[in-house]
Amino acid sequence: MIPPPFEYLRPSTVPEAISLLQAHGEDAKVLSGGQSLIPMMKLRIARPAWLIDINAIPGLDYIREQDGFLRIGGLVREFEIEASELIRKKYPILHDTASVIADPQVRSLATMGGNLAHGDPANDHPAAMLALRAEVVATGPNGSRTIKIDDFFVSVFTTALEPAEILTEIRVPLAGARSRGAYFKLERKVGDFATAAAAAQVTLDDRGAVSQAGIGLTNVGPVPIRGRHGEDFLRGKAPNAENIAQAAQLASEDAQPSSDLRGPAEYKKALVKELTRRALNRAVERAGGAR
Amino acid sequence: MTPTTPEVGGMGHSIKRREDPRFLQGKGNYVDDVHLPRMVYGQVVRSPFAHARIRGINTEAAKKAPGVLAVITGEDLAKANLAWMPTLFHDKQMVLATGKVLFQAQEVAFVVAETQYQAADAAELVEVDYEELPVLVDPHRALDANAPVLREDREEKSNHIFHWEVGDRQATQKAIQDAPVKVALDAVFQRCHPAPLETCGCVADLNTATGRLTVWLTSQAPHAHRTLFALVGGIPEENIRVISPDIGGGFGNKVPIYPGYVCAVVASLQLGRPVKWIETRSENLQSTGFARDYHMTAEIAADRDGKVKALRVKTLADHGAFNAAAQPSKFPAGLFSICTGSYDFPSAFCEVDGVYTNKAPGGIAYRCSFRVTEAAYLIERATDSLAYELKMDPAELRRKNFIPKETFPYRSPLGWTYDSGNYDAAMKLALDMIGYDDLRKEQAEKRKRGELMGIGVSSFTEIVGAGPAHTFDIVGIKMFDSCEIRVHPTGKAIARLGTKSQGQGHETTFPQIIAQELGIPANDILLEEGDTDTAPYGLGTYASRSTPVAGAATAICARKIRDKARKIAAHLLEASEADLEWEPGKFYVKGAPSKSKTIQEIAFAAYTNLPEGMEAGLEAVDYYDPPNLTFPFGTYICVVDIDKGTGEVKVRRFVAVDDCGNIINPMIVEGQIHGGLTEGFAIAFMQLISYDEQGNVQGGNFMDYLLPTAVETPHWETGKTCTPSPHHPIGAKGVGESPNVGSPAAFVNAVVDALSHLGVRHIDMPVTPWKVWQILHQNGIS
Amino acid sequence: MTARPVHVTLNGAEREAMAEPRLLLIHFIRDVLQQTGTHLGCDTTNCGACTVLLDGRPIKSCTYFAVQADGKKITTVEGLLSNGKMHPLQEGFREEHGLQCGFCTPGMMMSALALLERNPDPSEAEIRAGISGNLCRCTGYQNIVKAIQYAAAKMKKGATA
After folding, report:
1. Do A104 and C68 lie within an 8 Å CB cutoff?
2. What is the complex's ipTM, to 2 decimals?
3. Of A186, A190, A266, Cβ closest to residue B646
4. How many CA atoms lie within 13 A of A95 on its CB side?
5. Do the Cβ atoms of B103 and B358 come closer than 8 Å?
6. Which of A108, A111, A189 to mutate to test the interface with C (most CBs of C within 10 A)?
7. What is the pLDDT of residues C69-90, one digit of tens each?
8. Prediction pTM value
9. Which CATH number fits the domain C4-79, given the four candidates 3.10.20.30, 3.40.50.1980, 3.40.50.10800, 3.40.50.620?
10. Closest partner CB to A104 (pick from C45, C46, C111)
């Protein structure tokens, strides 16, 4: 219940934050939303000696389309994603995702950047990022670099971020009029992590066939999982019930769930199939497609 | 009963709550709000192991940590004979472990420091050397020859705690043998936990100048706790003051005495400073009074036309490491023998065996009326089993077997005398409200299309208001309750009770009883509970006993005052008492209604103008020994739809018809129903405290012990019938636990009903989506 | 470790006190600023009893450090009363019997306040979602929903008056 003691620093620029992270190395953690980190500190599972609070750094809270991407700053809060008209209209998969993260209070503080950087396969945004084929910008002592989302999630609670790097921007490829997605999450109750969840983003060509498909899966493996076989299958095909069902089946075969209090692995696999099917259907519907 | 005006606010008025203003302003006074000068903080150090010998405890580092004032161990307590304390049920439990630990999270040491944060840091520094022992978590293995014997302190070296039986074993055996139709059902009522939103805690303050110990305590039974502190702690009882201030929910969790309380008291005695101990939620879920863990088998024998002949019940009760069940002393299985329910069984037999396991101690809690939740669940599930066997509609089968209303008071084959009931009226109203026949038609059509929809019925009878002195006591203290009323010269009043509200609205409802009896407006009456220095002795609030027992005391007490008021009125009106009539609020002369005196005028006269020889004042006290328990009842009907793709169950509708006799405040009763149904919903669908084979607890915090939010919680439709209790002074029965008693079976019956055409006859709670999915999958329809 | 001054505007009043970095905002509010209306119900950020408004947004004060709140505005239940007059939410909870033990009520009202400030005319589903981070064990939420609807209606009337 009570965190162990730590020292607290509040840099006002990104370079300052980075040099503090460099100085304190493994003993330091970034505090952004804190809604994953602080609970771990209260359980005394995480015990950073230095907390680098980046919330005072200006200029990291934008949502805008620019130069071919939807760009979301690393400190954008979940409630802002939920409330964004731009995102609701053109990137509904992100609206779906943000609205099912924890609860309203957590969403006041939790950041999308943090949701990705924490590296928890149970978090919701990673699957949507996979489906969107997004990339993240990491800023560190050697400047900024772009990391493709498929390279970002390395293992449980481990991302490709270097110790002194901060996730400063998320980039989602600009969505054309016929590119839309959806996120379906089954949880035991509001506020829980997913028993399983599926994100799907589809792009339809002018014949109504699927020109690009992205499928991401939540909490069914040590990292968020791309439903690669389902995507490959669906590409080029008509988004009819049969093809979608088959894509969903293939996605479930890519899932590697464990049995736990949320249910047996066999159930989670079946859920992946069902939720992928629903997510694909909704994505197609939103992309203006006939089913 | 003459109705009163809304301004007076007697029985039946939905007056707004007196207690609300302070809660709405954040000015409640819960135990953790208590701040005393020089107050220090305690934290318990707990065992990570379920069963282990303690080889040694090293407190040196902890004692030296910043701010630490004391580190108490079992060895320290043993010197004062306090390492063990009696439980509320013929057993003892360790306050701080000596020798060995018996469940994960068991209390091992108590650290006291200047601040809560320092106590938390120091607790980590206590080093305990454990030697792990084999763990027993399956109650079915507890009596095996090779099972580890958990309680070395007991003479009998066995994990068997008790065997209890009631009824006619032979006659029931014969009836079952002879019956043309029989069904058997195995049903587990899973271990769960009441989880009130405020955890347990106390502030123990020994005033070294006066020698008085004041304990602010999250207690549903402050007087009983005071007496126990006196007996166990050897502190003179007049020097102990227990104050139960505002309590943030109880649901039975705050009836037992917990080691943390004892440690805080000891620490305060030792340090001469107030010691605050507030447990965390994890501690609450993992170590305080759990609920249920009953493994039951019911057999019902019946005629081919559905008339029941016999009920036989056998139950294995898992009590954890110590039998800390809070229940009347003659009833090791509480009031479980109400399991014949609403039905007229010619014969019945019930036996229960309790065992120890390496789990948290306890066994009674969670809005259960002393195991009535288990009993009602079992009979309502088993009745559905019989319905399936007979291919009979479950509502029709129930109506066929209801105890007819003409036969009350009804003596059940397991020894209870039900006071009154009209089960068919409640059933009929529920069927009408839900539109039962149309729903069955809809279900038939949906079934043809492969859609899964279910309707579950539960017609429960419960037993509350413990209880008559000839049968009921808790650790020897009889289960009366009390009310003391004093009317002031200006016609206002103060009343104090031996009960203790944890949200039930006593500050509003008990004045309403007085308002009904005396005509003093309810809002002119101040109601106090919970301070043992001032409140008359009572056994507290749990098991829905406040209205049946303290409510009766309140009415009788008010009538005693009315008797004296009549004498004063006669004096003021210069008439004889026999010539006076009463209507709420005044006495008037028969035939001359303008010659009257209001209760306010009489109150003033009680201090200013008394008849010759009469004592001043207008007050009374009553200690009420109920002649019987009361038997609220009802019918609940639940409609569910199942998502075949995910196994999720959605409650489409839930109708609850309750009969609790005469109602004091309909608004408050309805609130109780909503709350109890929500707890029943949580139990049916999502709550479980479980242990793995090493005795590690799962569901030990709110991440995994699931409480529904406003999103999951269904909309509740309520209705009522009114069958007063013939023996209760105001005909009231109590209602707080009915919804939690009657609803789990309604939910489960509905889900089973949705799947019954596949041959499904039972699903153990919690009925999770994956359990439903597994059934669908096995039947090829997921 | 190193304590630092934390300056907040609490219910409109300027308050300042020292806080060690690990001091949780809930403890700063309850123990240091001595406003005990906000309660603690769990240790895993699940129950919402500790909900306060931070610069107008509902947060769980048990999962936020006091030092983070430096320079910010905090609203707690104690800030609802205005010149002795109850806020429509407080009135609504009373009129509709939206509380029993009262322990979840302060946090619940803060979430409801935040909801109504950004959505003055919420549907029942939106209300339930808006309070989905606040657990109640007593009421079953049904009367809480009615209480919030009462407040919404009253606040709308007040706004157009």
Report:
1. no
2. 0.98
3. A186
4. 13
5. yes
6. A108
7. 999 999 999 999 999 999 999 9
8. 0.98
9. 3.10.20.30
10. C111
